[in-house]
Amino acid sequence: HEHEHEHEHEHHADGGHHHDHHGSNPHGWLDPANAVVWLDAIADTLAKADPEHAGTYRENARRSKADIKALSNELEAQLVDAKDVRFVVFHDAYQYFENRFDVSAVGAISLGDASQPSPARVDELRNRVVEQNVDCVFSEPQFNPQLVKSVFGGTGANTSIVIDPLGTDLPLDGELYPQLLRKLANAVSECAQTR
After folding, report:
1. What is the CATH number of the domain that holds 108?
2. What mean pLDDT do residues 2-14 have?
3. Which of 51, 81, 88, 98 has its CA 20 to 30 A from that of 12?
4. Is the pTM above the cut of 0.85?
5. Conformation bin of residue 133: beta by default, left when phi > 0, alpha when psi is -120 to 50
6. What mean pLDDT is predicted for residues 133-149?
7. Whole-angstrom Cα distance, residue 192 to residue 188?
8. How many domains does the chain have?
């Protein structure tokens, strides 16, 4: 992902995000409303390329859209009590999910590379997590859990929840997409429950 660089943003006083993704964000699939639109586009493209099976493509898209809408409703209900949870992410990949389900990261932080950051950087990150009363620091699979723990241990934030916007640990099958969204929702729910 060429845009999957890490950077920091602060919450503005009005609660808005500042996002600098040079006009595009590569994680649009984290909003199921986008997936529904894409299903029609995919079905149309397949139908044009293979008219003989156009009906099958369109029926599959119709069924999948119904499944995704049901999933979206399920996750909205699950997250209704987690709207005030305060979490921090390691890169700014989750706005589509946050906006759809009305939850919001208080910041995206960067540890730089996976080596130990400088003592000054550790102090800065710890202070920010404490000052912003962060409930959870969501790690990602590429980060060494010991590093995350050593930087944020003692801040009071839960550092044990790992999230993955790509679903790299999930099997490549028809359940990958709902599982990916459920895992993100479960992470936010778990954070809310362990405060």
Report:
1. 3.40.50.1980
2. 39
3. 81
4. no
5. left
6. 91
7. 6
8. 2
